[in-house]
Amino acid sequence: MTTTETQELALTPTQIEGPYYKVCSPHRSSLLEPGISGTPLEITGQVLNEKGKPIPGAALDFWQSDDKGNYDMVGDFLRGHVFSDDNGHYSIETIMPACYEPRQARHIHVKVQGVSRPYTTQLYFSDDEDRVKDNFYQKELEVQVSDQPGGRKRGTFNFVIRQVTEQENVTPESLAARVK
Ligand SMILES: [Fe+2]
User: Fold this and answer.
1) Residues 59, 173 contacting (CB under 8 angstroms)
2) Residues 143, 128: Cα–Cα separation, whole Å
3) pTM for the whole thing?
4) I need a labelling partner for 134 at 20 to 30 A (CA). Which of 41, 97, 99, 107 fits?
5) How many C-beta atoms lie closer than 10 Å to residue 82's C-beta?
6) 107 CA to middle of ligand 1, Å?
7) 43, 156 Cβ separation under 8 angstroms
8) Rg (CA), the chain
9) Chain-centre distance of CA 109, in angstroms?
């Protein structure tokens, strides 16, 4: 993880949403379903603020293609959201996505939101040789992947997002209190 001169963690870069996001994904920590094909992949990590403090209760909403590069735009196949726990940890079980035209990199889309604006971004994979040919690939968004027994993969990625401060957190009540 990179740090700035002030020793704060660099915020996770945001990226385009793309055309395949759908609201109301299921709340589930595994996107695996009976009969699903592809390489099983577990991604774990933490949601942190820029000072490295864990953010509990952050929502992480994932969507991705299947192992042939198709997105389900009718149902919720390979869509789901989880919440970070008391220590900011999250985990999601899924499969390694395929590439699809015009993309060159395997990627998983995600929206992360704490007491913050939503951070829309994409995750890439350290073992995907073609990732560097992709126009959107950023090293800062790379999941560090390792091979596991049985052909499974495991990856880690920490998100760093900026929470809304007390001062910025305008509610109708607080705004009314300020302007009177
Ligand atoms: Fe995509």
Assistant:
1) no
2) 10
3) 0.90
4) 41
5) 18
6) 6
7) yes
8) 17
9) 6
68, two tokens: 């042939």
Q: pLDDT tens across 69-109, in order?
A: 999 999 999 999 999 999 999 999 999 999 888 999 999 99
Q: Ligand 1 centre and the CA of 77: distance in Å?
A: 14
Q: How many residues does the chain have?
A: 180
Domain 40-179 belongs to what architecture? Sandwich (2.60)
- Residue of 149, 156, 88 lying closest to 123 (CA atoms): 156
**Residue at 69: amino acid letter:** G
Cβ-in-10-Å burial (0-12, 13-18, 19+) of 172 comes to exposed
Integer Cα distance of 73 and 76 in angstroms: 8
Stated as kind and residue range, the H or E segment containing 93 is: strand 89-95
Measured in Å, residue 33 CA sits from the centre of ligand 1 at: 20
DSSP-assigned states of every residue in 4-25: -TTSPBPPPPP----S---S--
Residue-range domain boundaries for the chain: 40-179
Both tokens of residue 54?
Answer: 């864990």
